[in-house]
Design brief:
Blueprint: H1 16-30, E1 37-38, H2 50-63, H3 79-90, E2 102-105, H4 108-114, E3 125-129, H5 133-142, E4 148-149, E5 154-155, E6 158-162, E7 180-184, H6 196-209, E8 212-216, H7 238-241, E9 242-247, H8 249-252, E10 260-263, E11 269-271, E12 277-279, H9 280-291, H10 297-304, H11 309-335, E13 340-342, E14 348-352, H12 359-370, E15 372-373, E16 375-376, E17 387-391, H13 396-409
Parallel strand pairs: 1-15, 3-6, 3-7, 7-8, 8-9
Antiparallel strand pairs: 2-10, 4-5, 9-10, 11-12, 13-14, 14-17, 16-17
Helix pairs in contact: 2-10, 3-10, 4-5, 11-13
Bound molecules: pyridoxal-5'-phosphate (PLP).
Residues 42, 107-109, 112, 132, 184, 188, 216, 218, 247, 249, 255, 260 line the site of pyridoxal-5'-phosphate.
Domain Aminotransferase class I/classII large: 35-406
GO molecular function: L,L-diaminopimelate aminotransferase activity; pyridoxal phosphate binding
Binding site for pyridoxal 5'-phosphate: 72, 108-109, 132, 188, 219, 247-249, 258, 293
């Protein structure tokens, strides 16, 4: 009899987006003519930039010719892409990285989920609440957490750092020791950012406590304001304590193409039970070379095209398009009397539900009355209750229409 990994029994029954899909399907079957606008799931709607598709086609042609065919590539990614990443995403920020500190992958979801496996199972982890669910669920699967406490809506033995209206959606430092800290800025779901000074407090905490910050900056490209750190490595000392996850998914429409990268500086150390230091970079290399065979050559060639002058211009246009949607949503909701967060340096708008309405209740009401679908805050954690997430990744037409409907068909 094959036994299961019983940690999986601790997970909630269904992934948030499956429950949303179930409710939409039920509504559609009862209201077949309803014109539903989806501003819920965080997928993009703009196509890949032309510079990207051209580079991908060229690379595909190379793969079809004996002289230019490529088989397995380096597990960590091709140097031609890593060089571009360092040159464009880090050097202008005063951050110098070596080629072997950047690991190209097929997604920030897999990287943020997989990274925990190189840490000891007894480590104490901290997450913000609300949170991108992958950090929590991957640690649950690994057995690093206790059981789910249904009443609290939280797992035992995870330290939750509430992000609420009271603290402006900015988490406070933990009051007890933690070893692994997941931070995501610009944040999904709240759309909020930290200043350099605020982020420095986290780096200082991690240095004092020999903790490691797992910093997800999948939405870095959406930062508009000066003074908001573009990478955690802009912060003094971060190279000793932080790992950074980035993705081309939202930056350049790669959600269906799959390419991302993770930066693991050589200074970051983890310790064995005798207190001896080990390089996290070396452990991640060992893990990746064992379990991952790299991202396909055409996809990496496509990702490198983002950094050409045309690629940069085209990516900028796409991001401007989404950020104009964000402005429309943010200002529209504010005019309609809702309280909103985010949407300035991020493609997410986090709104407070009216009259303390539960977030699933608001989901149903919005779908029924305005035929607009968003994401209930409760799906991101106990402190997401009473909030609702809308995304700027829709088409302009749908975004304008959705806000118009919220203004005219809903009372806030
Ligand atoms: N990290 C955050 C915070 C996200 O919101 C998402 C996607 O929604 C990801 C990572 C996943 O990115 P990828 O498409 O690269 O797997």
């Amino acid at each position: 009899m094959a036994l299961m990994n019983e940690n999986y029994q601790r997970l909630p029954g269904s992934y948030l987006f499956s429950e949303i899909a179930r409710r939409i399907n039920q509504f559609k079957s009862e209201n077949p003519n309803a014109d539903i606008i989806r501003l819920g799931i965080g997928d993009v709607t703009r196509p890949l930039p032309p510079a990207v598709t051209e580079a991908m086609k060229k690379a595909v042609d190379e793969m079809g010719k004996a002289e230019t065919f490529r088989g397995y590539g380096p597990e960590q990614g091709y140097d031609f892409l890593i060089e571009k990443i360092i040159e464009n995403d880090y050097r202008p920020r005063g951050v110098d990285l070596s080629l072997d500190e950047v690991y190209v992958s097929d997604g920030a979801k897999s990287d943020t989920a997989n990274f925990q496996e190189i840490f000891g199972i007894g480590n104490i982890m901290a997450v913000t609440d609300p949170v991108y669910p992958v950090y929590v669920d991957s640690n649950v699967m690994a057995g690093r957490t206790g059981n789910f406490n249904g009443e609290k809506g939280q797992y035992e033995s995870i330290i939750y750092l509430p992000c609420t209206e009271e603290n402006g959606m900015k988490p406070s430092l933990p009051t007890t020791h933690v070893d692994m800290i997941y931070l995501c800025f610009p944040n999904n779901p709240t759309g909020m950012t930290l200043t350099k000074e605020e982020l420095k407090e986290w780096v200082d905490y991690a240095r004092e406590n020999k903790s490691i910050i797992l910093y997800d900056s999948a939405y870095e490209a959406f930062i508009r304001e000066e003074g908001v750190p573009r990478t955690i490595f802009e912060i003094e000392g971060a190279r000793e304590v932080a790992v950074e996850f980035r993705s081309f998914s939202k930056t350049a429409g790669f959600t269906g193409t799959r390419c991302a990268y993770t930066v693991v500086p050589k200074e970051v150390m983890v310790y064995d039970s005798e207190g001896k230091a080990h390089s996290l970079n070396k452990l991640w290399l060992r893990r990746q070379t064992t379990k991952f065979n790299g991202v396909s050559y055409p996809v990496q060639a496509a990702a490198a095209a983002i950094y050409t002058p045309e690629g940069k211009q085209q990516v900028k246009e796409t991001i401007d398009y989404y950020m104009e949607n964000a402005r429309i949503i943010r200002e529209g909701l504010t005019e309609a009397g809702y309280e909103v967060f985010g949407g300035i340096n991020a493609p997410y708008i986090w709104m407070k539900t009216p009259k303390n309405m539960g977030s699933w209740e608001f989901f149903d009401k919005l779908m029924k009355e305005a035929n607009v679908v968003g994401t209930p805050g409760a799906g991101f954690g106990a402190n997401g209750e009473g909030y609702f997430r809308l995304t700027a990744f829709g088409t302009r037409e749908n975004t304008v229409k959705a806000i118009e409907r919220i203004k005219t068909k809903m009372e806030s």
